[in-house]
Amino acid sequence: MKVASSLSAGAAREALAVQISPVVFDVSLVKSPPTVARPSASVSASASRLCRRRFCRRGIRMANQTLKTTKNHLRHVDSMSTLPSRAGKITGLNAVILGEALASEEDDLVFPNDEFVRQALVPSPKKYLEMYKRSIEDPAGFWSDVASQFYWKRRWAESVVSENFDVRNGSVKIEWFKGGITNICYNCLDRNVESGNADKIAIYWEPNEPGSQDSLTYSQLLQRVCQLANYLKDKGVRKGDAIVIYLPMLMELPIAMLACARIGAVHSVVFAGFSADSLAQRIVDCKPKVVITCNAVKRGSKVIPLKDIVDASLIESAKNGVSVDVCLTYENESAMKRESTKWQVGRDVWWQDVVPKYPTTCEVEWVDAEDPLFLLYTSGSTGKPKGVLHTTGGYMVYTATTFKYAFDYKPSDIYWCTADCGWITGHSYVTYGPMLNGATVVIFEGAPNYPDPGRSWDIVDKFKVTIFYTAPTLVRSLMRDGDEYVTRYSRKSLRVLGSVGEPINPSAWRWFFNVVGDSRCPISDTWWQTETGGFMITPLPGAWPQKPGSATFPFFGVQPVIVDEKGAEIEGECSGYLCVKSSWPGAFRTLYGDHERYETTYFKPFPGYYFSGDGCSRDKDGYYWLTGRVDDVINVSGHRIGTAEVESALVSHPQCAEAAVVGFEHEVKGQGIYAFVTLVDGVPYSEELRKSLILTVRNQIGAFAAPDKIHWAPGLPKTRSGKIMRRILRKIASRQLDELGDTSTLADPSVVEQLIELADR
């Protein structure tokens, strides 16, 4: 996150020395630090609790050297000469050190400990600055060096990157490593087998029901991938053809993705929770040669008949002129036997009957770096899904690099990302990013609270997971269930935690850090999008002190800017619209079949920039704080209020387990704030509690942000991946109950009925 020195194991303390170097400071008074640095009566007392003498001297010296070389594009570290946000004078600075104390509501900074820093890939801000500066000033050289670590059948042309980011100068174009010939499946599998990792576990698979498991080594995974690739080729699938994959989190899902990549086919994974209509939309748009699915999946105690959904979608797509000749179906016998599966002879084929018969070797289809790798559909404001298109070379290099540094990956790590491969996180950080690094990945078929809320930590202990990457929604859900489901398990193997999908509120961050990570695991709170392909703003464990809830600083090669409504860049401490100037290797290249929409949505709002659609604040230390989607910003009497900010305040209340905030029409204010609040188990609804929640928001943000309405919510409408369906909440808040739309993708559709019943209480 921010400031620490590079030459010692005490990077955390050196970081602080860098920050306080402009202050009159008597180094002779410095002593070894205790567990926590708290406010004291004098500068010397505070200093003695935060730094060691030798670290401070080096920190001050390096701070002076670094500040002299800092340029405008490195403005996010210019604040090395200032104090942390809200710290005031040096005597008011609060800090904790990993593994030595709990992070409380008053702590501004959480530092890595000496042991972690010693082994970190980026152990200091000095190292980060060196790498970041080169990635911005010499992107071609920086990314060429990184790309050279992978296998290329033919090296790229002399021009590493070619781009036009400004719609005023013509069509938007992004190209990286154009002319380079490679294959991402080869780099994920063959390269690892050939380098001596043939017998290393590639995938541990945990089924829905506890008590069993499966695994594949890199050699076994390569063989399975080749068998499926050969089958697809036998069915006429060629380079550039689309394949739709509608599978749950079985090992066959990454196998299918990698098989497509091996033969140059373009996979489109559809989350196995989407309705038949949603699946049909995607089939009609990309016109696949084959659909790959399974007969059913069991999540928790619920059986979901996926094949029935596929059948209905294929009927619908045929009505729209798109027929699919092959539906390859995996028999997931733990959920449904094949004799209970509806079948269309001539189209439907059992995976187990055909794929294992094919050879376990398959020639690689070598592709250009700019050839398509996959399509991933994301929701659009018009209601029509957007087919985000990622290409091969730049995506490969970027996902591998972000995975390596953001999680401080080591070859001995066991990595578990709870995301589904139906989303971008599952593409970049379940399949491609980890396997490009030769990592061992845990894949879990079931629900994280089945058969009880301790299932996640049971899996962590079972496989000795060292890196755990999940969503704030799951963190808050597990918070609500109570610490006892966490503390009954060891979790001693954990060393790095991660957060993805939405801004994590500080209260959830602290619980994740204190309870799950035992106050010793840094949290990589990542900001990125389907469109970006990989992390854009993220902590690098060991490099910076962390601020609970902040995504910290940009990854290598990323130039974030905050602009006002007119598109003017805002410097220093500010809030506004988050944009990116200049491309990065993992950027998506277009929206499939609709480049005009691509430009209109992402590049025309602020010409010269990629517009993320997110709001963002930057504090005076340069830390970035994501405030949620711009369309989740509520304008109350002229005050622009991010819904995430209000939600964070509500969840900080000890009796609030989760909250979701939307805007609604207000005759006086224009928009009012409508808060759906889920309470901690056992806490009753009351007028006193309602007032207490509102007061919490008033105290933390201001009177202008106080919710106008509190809607008690036994649960919130979420997809099976944990995403809150705010569209439904907006309709309930505005009482447009006849416009709720499709609720079939919800994990529990009955929640909507409960919310409607409680609407006027």
TrEMBL record:
Keywords: ATP-binding, Ligase, Nucleotide-binding
Statement: the UniProt record of this protein carries the keyword Manganese: no
This enzyme's EC code(s): 6.2.1.1
Enzyme class: ligase
Domain AMP-dependent synthetase/ligase: 196-583
Alphabetical list of Gene3D superfamilies matching this protein: 3.30.300.30, N-terminal domain of ligase-like
AMP-binding enzyme C-terminal domain boundaries: 645-723
Superkingdom classification of source: Eukaryota
Domain named Acetyl-coenzyme A synthetase N-terminal: residues: 128-188
Family: Belongs to the ATP-dependent AMP-binding enzyme family.
UniProt protein name: acetate--CoA ligase
Species per Swiss-Prot/TrEMBL record: Hevea brasiliensis (Para rubber tree)
